[in-house]
């Protein structure tokens, strides 16, 4: 196809088309005419070259401005346009546009990014009191750390790594797979672009050695079951000086003898004598904050009733204030009575009218009505 055909016509775009429109149109046409999809068709190959040539000019703002002003004459006599490029050049343009569909195949030609070290996990058990107040502690872990002898390079001190001959230092190798060009990490250097000719005697070229480390951990007030604390760069070191991973401390809160927790709310069950439940009063509950909380008991309280003490619960993690303390009352019926207590209760029963316990009175009245056919 003649290079004198208007580039905008070749790309089926208006002259006012923006860069996104030009790129989209080129993708569609390049996919349509690519030789791998039209094996042996000279016409398709010619069209593919033509649309690639057009896009190579129009994607560059300076070349496009020159073309808009002077047309094809702007690139006559080696003026920097298309026309004289070979098929490999057009393939490069194609790959630059379709790179995201091929896993970033070109990637700027640099070596593969260094492999970061692995993250590590450490499980720590704490008490509910420690979760309330927070704590500072230390943990000891066994980890692959940077080799001090070679400073993580993997090479014997006084020597240096050499460029990998397989990938010429790029860290990647390319392979044609049908319609696509695929890049993979170099199997010889594992993507580093370098080879260790004289490895460090301590780490044997890996840049890492096994060490035992003791680390300080700050547990903030208000943590809960499963809270995760991140210690940046305290995980395994990356190979040959690559960045280290992170260490994650996972917290597990031990079951408490009295309190149960739901978010920032603390729950406790308190048995209550039937006399206090009847007459009212107060009970003293020691809190996790070290204070004693007096819970007022209203007269006539029933089992299962919950009483709330504002601000006596768990602290808000990384915030202000506290949750609440909720006490659930369980009225206890006495099982061991002295003779005098029994006499007093008999005297009380003789004075009962039924109004003292309206729920019981209502139930038996309803029961009587059912069986009486009312």
Automatic annotation (TrEMBL):
One of its GO terms (molecular function) is heat shock protein binding. GO terms for cellular component: cytoplasm. CXXCXGXG motif repeats lie at residues 147-154, 164-171, 186-193, 200-207. It is found in: Cytoplasm. Zn(2+) 1 binds at residues 147, 150, 200, 203. It holds the Pfam family DnaJ_CXXCXGXG. PROSITE patterns: DNAJ_1 (PS00636), DNAJ_2 (PS50076), ZF_CR (PS51188). A zinc finger (CR-type) spans 134-212. Residues 134-212 form the CR-type domain. Binds 2 Zn(2+) ions per monomer. Belongs to the DnaJ family. Homodimer. Participates actively in the response to hyperosmotic and heat shock by preventing the aggregation of stress-denatured proteins and by disaggregating proteins, also in an autonomous, DnaK-independent fashion. Unfolded proteins bind initially to DnaJ; upon interaction with the DnaJ-bound protein, DnaK hydrolyzes its bound ATP, resulting in the formation of a stable complex. GrpE releases ADP from DnaK; ATP binding to DnaK triggers the release of the substrate protein, thus completing the reaction cycle. The J domain is necessary and sufficient to stimulate DnaK ATPase activity. Zinc center 1 plays an important role in the autonomous, DnaK-independent chaperone activity of DnaJ. Zinc center 2 is essential for interaction with DnaK and for DnaJ activity. PANTHER family: CHAPERONE PROTEIN DNAJ, DNAJ HOMOLOG 1, MITOCHONDRIAL-RELATED. This is Chaperone protein DnaJ.
